[in-house]
């Protein structure tokens, strides 16, 4: 993408309303624009990040056996009355009446809707296990929306819902999602730490929050160093519905839970010291980005989501739900990866993986070489951002650092005269020169 043809409204000054780093940088780098309290327009640059995160989540959900559908943002109140949650959910639910005076709501979650889908079409235990997920906008009427996308009212969420014949099967579905989440966050360059959690208004008796480690996180975290060392992104996890697969998942799940992890609210220092050798004890800050629940018959029983069991009797499906805050992850990643100059995107989710800076736009040789390298990068399957603006060099460098392009290539008259281009690593700030003739080889490598 040529910057002169792109819509990237960056700001030089930090808006006064932005209190935390991610909110400041998302506004300054042109990812979002506030529309109303807790509601944002996602500008092209921010939308590219959302899509990158969505794609990783989608790949890992599909790999774990979940099946995608799309549920509505507007939901009927009658479904929520069936489950008993319509009056209990509280003021966070935005309740609406249509022109026929029917009660609707802007969905804060979708247990009722997906249970209705299940009870309509699934009749036999032979159709289980089943896990349905969607990536959809949700709305919760926060009393005090703040911190940008970290605590907004409208947010993009991946929510999955599992259905099983019995508790053993449901707990195995829970383990699938638990392990898929560890893979998902690590693929984004993050370290996800699962912690036991309260079930809240979702309900149930088994729940874990997934915290990612970030220096400016909202909660204190105490954890075993194994969470930093384990390579989940490349781990071979058997997600098949075989005895071998179930056994492996149970062993991995139990292995993870043997390690200590707690937020400062639930931290037990004596237990931490007893469970974790001193050299592996870690303390830091973290941000919640995912939450999973097993709640059995909480929704299937009152809503009549029954299936015919193997013995010819109707039984209630056993259910779980699994959420990831997609839009919240954008803010969380920035909190985890930034410096004084701007965002430092992990390479897996950067909107543009290569920045080309023309130090002298309008110079025939500089323009020709930049065009050539830009075309080579496109043909190599990369996503280059070419700063071809008629701006001073300092402004171009500042923009590239602010928006966090991981690898930056600088072309200027002096370099061309010497037959070299400069390459800078955004994260380390290290620079090196390579011969112009070796660019294509370097790119492939």
Give an account of the 3D structure.
- The chain is 32% helix and 28% strand.
- It is an alpha+beta fold and 445 residues long.
- The protein has 2 domains: 3-343, BirA Bifunctional Protein, domain 2 (2-Layer Sandwich); 354-444, 3-Layer(aba) Sandwich (Rossmann fold), CATH 3.40.50.
- The chain is globular.
- Poorly predicted ranges (pLDDT <50, ≥5 residues)? none
At CATH level 2, the architecture of the largest domain is: 2-Layer Sandwich
The shape is globular
State the fourth-level CATH superfamily of the largest domain.
Bira Bifunctional Protein, Domain 2
Count of domain modules: 2
Rg (CA only): 25 Å
Helix content estimate: 25-40%
Short description:
With about 450 residues, the protein is α+β, with helices and mostly antiparallel strands. It has helices at about 20-30, 45-65, 75-85, 110-120, 165-185, 225-230, 245-255, 270-275, 325-335, 365-380, 395-405, 415-420, 440-445, and strands at about 30-35, 40, 65-70, 75, 95, 105, 130-140, 155-165, 190-195, 205-215, 220-225, 260-265, 280-295, 305-310, 315, 320-325, 340, 340-345, 355-360, 385, 405-410, 420-425, 430-435. β22 (about 420-425) and β23 (about 430-435) form a beta hairpin.
List the helices and strands and how they pair.
Blueprint: H1 21-28, E1 32-36, E2 39-42, H2 44-63, E3 67-68, E4 74-76, H3 77-83, E5 94-97, E6 103-106, H4 111-121, E7 130-139, E8 154-164, H5 167-187, E9 192-196, E10 206-213, E11 219-224, H6 226-229, H7 243-257, E12 261-263, H8 269-275, E13 281-296, E14 306-308, E15 314-316, E16 318-325, H9 326-336, E17 338-339, E18 342-343, E19 354-358, H10 364-379, E20 384-387, H11 393-403, E21 407-411, H12 413-418, E22 420-425, E23 431-435, H13 439-444
Parallel strand pairs: 3-7, 19-20, 19-21
Antiparallel strand pairs: 1-2, 4-6, 5-6, 7-8, 8-16, 9-10, 10-13, 11-12, 11-13, 13-16, 14-15, 17-18, 21-22, 22-23
Helix pairs in contact: 1-9, 2-5, 2-9, 5-7
